[in-house]
Design a protein that fits this description.
Layout (H helix, E strand, L loop, with lengths): L9 H17 L2 E5 L1 H7 L7 E6 L2 H12 L2 E5 L4 E6 L2 E7 L1 E4 L8 E4 L2 H6 L9 E3 L8 E2 L4 H6 L2 E2 L6 H4 L2 H13 L2 E2 L1 H12 L8 H12 L4 H11 L13 H20 L8 H10 L4 H10 L4 H16 L9 H8 L4 H10 L4 H14 L8 H6 L8 H15 L3 H17 L1
Parallel strand pairs: 2-5, 10-11
Antiparallel strand pairs: 1-2, 1-8, 3-4, 4-5, 6-7, 8-9
Helix pairs in contact: 1-3, 7-9, 7-10, 10-11, 11-12, 11-16, 12-14, 12-16, 13-14, 14-16, 15-17, 15-19, 19-20
Length: about 425
């Protein structure tokens, strides 16, 4: 028997040994399942674990969190719980079977065996398990030939009604196909096309579609995923007005390039929510009203909606950066925008050299600019009139940007000049 767990990092192996011992004393069977098993076999990095419990997953996870002194969160409605340790999340799920009342609906679930739990999954490569039980620890459980499909680089569903039960599997099939460089097996592909032809994705709650779309856009090179979705399904499941032209795919590739450059040149700046740039590129040709409706219907977060609207509204305004400008004007134009918006503008106007140079100036020299003095410093100096402080501080910031003022003393000296000018 091959112990498939030996390749895991030490901290995970330790955790699973502890869980295995607790399973014996608790009288339950536990298994590592799903994507983590697939990734172990493919020798891909593993960051989090999914464990199925034949029994009460919430109770078991709670005991385990107490034992290792880790974080614990339960989800009663789904019979699941999460244990946190060393910045990792371990999800525990009660083995269950699913019944779909109609196509695209969320399933009704009830406790079941591991075998029944595995057959409810999307593809054979995600329907394998590894035993964490004492007498079979590390043994692969592969009822549906997932290992063979992994070796054959094949995406295959477990039963013919799979895409109708859950049409989001259409998007998942594309995602796994592109991520791993696999092919969708012919019978699976035929069934997928049948589901596409009857517009099965239209039956799915928009919030679930949003989650699947974000997963696609979060892949390392989303352009190829977007093209495959567009070729097979189009983006009618988001809105029928979305018609991606060749120019859109060129924009996706430029976004990819700009993101790479940003990460290389500006490591001190925060990481970006890169997927938002691709979503903005998909939506950019629609009207502001249509974009607002899509973002609302699909339940995107407020911050995400603000960024996409700022991109839509700013893409024309930002053209005024395409000329020689004083640095403070560059700052004034760009500072209100998120980093994501600015990077989108960079990709959108890639061939406007002055605009790109101004954006690069902002990234390199201006983005972290701030005054050392505050209004309270002006008050201590008894500078008047008091109602001019906001105006003075703004003017002072722009002078600092243009002149390159260094230190608090230079700022105070310049502030005195501004007040003198106001008073005269």
């Amino acid at each position: 028997m091959i112990n498939r767990l030996k390749v895991l990092p030490f901290q995970f192996r330790n955790f699973l040994k502890t869980a295995s011992a607790l399973a014996v004393s608790s009288g339950v069977n536990i298994y590592l399942v799903g994507g983590v098993v697939r990734d172990l076999i493919l020798k891909r990095a593993v960051f989090d674990l999914d464990i199925v419990v034949e029994g009460d997953a919430i109770s078991f996870a709670h005991k385990l969190s107490d034992k290792i002194k880790g974080g614990f969160k339960k989800h009663h409605a789904f019979g699941t719980a999460t244990v946190c340790f060393n910045k990792h999340k371990i999800d525990f799920t009660t083995a269950r079977t699913e019944i779909y009342s109609h196509q695209g609906a969320l399933p009704k679930v009830k406790p079941a065996s591991l075998v029944e739990d595995l057959i409810r999954r999307d593809f054979t490569i995600n329907a394998m398990a590894i035993s964490l039980n004492k007498d079979s620890y590390g043994q692969l459980i592969d009822i549906y030939s997932g290992l063979k499909d992994l070796k054959d680089k094949s995406i295959r569903i477990l039963h013919d009604g799979s895409f109708l039960d859950d049409p989001t599997r259409i998007l998942r099939a594309i995602r796994f196909e592109q991520r791993f460089g696999f092919r969708i097996e012919k019978h699976t592909f035929d069934l997928m096309k049948q589901a596409i032809d009857i517009d099965a994705l239209s039956l799915v709650n928009p919030h679930r579609l949003r989650d699947e779309l974000i997963l696609i856009l979060q892949e390392s090179k989303p352009a190829v995923y977007i093209k495959r979705v567009n070729d097979l399904e189009s983006f009618n499941f988001v809105d029928s007005e979305i018609k991606l032209k060749n120019s859109a795919f060129k924009l996706f590739l430029r976004i990819q390039k700009c993101v790479t450059e940003y990460k290389r040149k500006h490591k001190k700046h925060r990481d970006l929510e890169v997927w938002i740039l691709y979503l903005a590129a998909i939506l950019i040709e629609l009207s502001t009203q249509k974009i607002d409706k899509i973002l609302s219907d699909f339940g995107f977060k407020k911050g995400e909606r603000i960024i996409i609207h700022s991109i839509k509204e700013g893409v024309d305004k930002i053209k005024k950066l395409d000329k020689n400008l004083k640095k403070h004007l560059v700052y004034e134009y760009l500072n209100p925008y998120s980093y994501e918006s600015i990077l989108f503008f960079c990709a959108y106007y890639h061939n406007r050299s002055k605009l790109i140079a101004n954006i690069e100036c902002f990234w390199s020299d201006l983005v972290d600019t701030h005054l050392r003095i505050k209004g309270r410093d002006l008050k201590k100096l008894d500078l008047r009139p008091l109602d001019s402080y906001n105006r003075v501080l703004k003017e002072l910031l722009y002078i600092k940007i243009d002149k390159g003022l260094k230190g608090k003393k230079e700022e105070i000296a310049e502030a005195r000049k501004i007040f003198k000018k106001i008073s005269s």
